[in-house]
Design brief:
Layout: H1 2-20, H2 54-69, E1 77-82, E2 92-96, E3 101-106, E4 134-144, E5 147-154, E6 169-173, H3 178-184, E7 196-197, H4 201-208, E8 213-217, H5 221-226, H6 232-244
């Protein structure tokens, strides 16, 4: 029964992806653009990509569906961060899954010790000043030294579940903007927070706060192979086996 239910969820995700393509989206049609070159820097690299790359969006939808099946999310909004792209690319997307449209496509910084323009190292450790991967739940907001900030709850043990204790939050920053790229050739870096442009942060944070999903991607082999949100079939099969005993 569980297997059939999850197959239906996968079919739903496939159908959702198809409908997310500009050809059938409710928003005006927009041509899918190729992902920017990982080595590119400068203002030109900050051109928007209307949608995440398909392989990344497929994983994000799979993780979202797994979390949604467990009642972890309160709204059909999915934020995707693709840390495999350079920080000069607009590598954060906020997607309205009901309306099947991208609400925001923005720049986002990674942690100081995750890499320079291109991130390559991630951590869940205190004091690492590195970004974390995996599935998060957007929680409540507060007003701090960066203005309005959004608390993130990491949902993956050993991967991002220390996010709250590490004070990993989404906030605006003056080192995240196309102007900063034009001057320095790259974004500044945070202490592990997914910092975004201060000009858009209040609107973006207000849209995703209160129980939406955030999925941070990088082709890390260990995480991709072990994430329970990317292997829901195995997770539920194990649970069924325990119930049977």
């Amino acid at each position: 029964m569980v297997g059939r239910r999850w197959k239906r969820k996968r079919l739903w995700a496939a159908a959702l992806w198809t409908c997310m393509l500009p050809s059938c989206a409710a928003a005006p049609a927009r041509r899918l653009l190729p992902a920017p070159d990982r080595a590119s820097t400068g203002a030109a690299a900050a051109a928007p990509n209307p949608w995440p790359r398909r392989e990344v969006l497929d994983l994000a939808l799979e993780a979202y569906q797994c979390g949604r099946a467990q009642g972890l999310f309160d709204q059909p909004t999915l934020t995707v961060i693709d840390y495999s792209l350079p920080s000069t690319a607009k590598r954060l997307w906020v997607i309205d899954l009901q309306q099947r449209r991208v609400l925001f496509n923005e720049l986002v910084a990674h942690g100081e010790r995750s890499g320079d323009t291109v991130a390559s190292a991630f951590s869940n450790r205190f004091g690492s000043k590195q970004s974390s991967l995996g599935l998060f739940r957007a929680e409540d907001t507060y007003f701090g030294r960066h203005g309005v900030a959004l608390r993130l709850n990491g949902l993956e043990p050993g991967v991002n579940d220390h996010a709250r204790e590490r004070a990993i939050v989404m906030h605006g920053a003056d080192y995240v903007s196309s102007d900063h790229i034009a001057v320095w050739g790259k974004l500044g870096r945070s202490w592990g927070c997914p910092a975004i442009d201060s000009a858009v942060s209040p609107r973006l944070i207000d849209r995703i706060r209160g129980g939406s999903a955030i999925f941070a991607y990088y082709p890390d082999r260990d995480w991709l192979g072990s994430s329970t949100f990317l292997h829901c079939d195995a997770r539920w099969a194990k649970a069924d086996g325990k119930d049977a005993r």
